[in-house]
Specification:
The protein is an alpha/beta fold and about 190 residues long. It has one domain: Rossmann fold (3-Layer(aba) Sandwich), CATH 3.40.50.300. The protein is about 55% helix and about 10% strand. It contains nine helices and four strands. It has a four-stranded parallel sheet with strand order 2-1-3-4. Helix 1 links the parallel strand 1 and strand 2. Helix 1 packs antiparallel against helix 7 and helix 4 packs parallel to helix 9. The longest helix has 21 residues. It starts with a strand and ends with a helix.
Amino acid sequence: MSILIASYPRSGRTYLRSVLSVSLSKPVDFLHLHEHAQRVGLQEYDKIIYLVRNPIDSISSIVAMELESVKVKNIEISLTRRITEYVSFYSFALKNKGFFICFDDIVSKTKKTVDRISLISGIEVLNYDRIDGAYDSVFDTKSQNFLKTSKSSELYDSVRSHVMNADLKKCFVLYQIAKKRCEQIE
């Protein structure tokens, strides 16, 4: 069985991939944005899981990272593009078949999330004991390969302020619908 986990950037994908790699008996495919999923074709996958995160948090995070890495120099251009992408991703996800898992559950109910993915995918859980180690390996600031949290960026508070003042109505409508889908039992 082939499983796809698709997400908007900064929605817990890297952490979830780390957790699943140490807990499930088979690997799971991960894609970042839906454009790639559309090119590959969703029909190639037996099950699709979409990760859901609050637009303020995910958009603030990706814009802060872009500004910090100097990929983008203008906050308004980045913010506008990322809001459009957020709306596009969730519009796409909600039109397609699939399961939804919320970022907050990935972080605060990790074992329950692993169980849910196991149930959805039919992939056996082999090990719960290594889940805490997965968190440490992803967020280990002593390592060269650690995943920086956006809140460690000096720009984060400024970016978050811009995001909170942006027009996020469409984002929040889609987020609320997707969040309700997170609560549905398959």
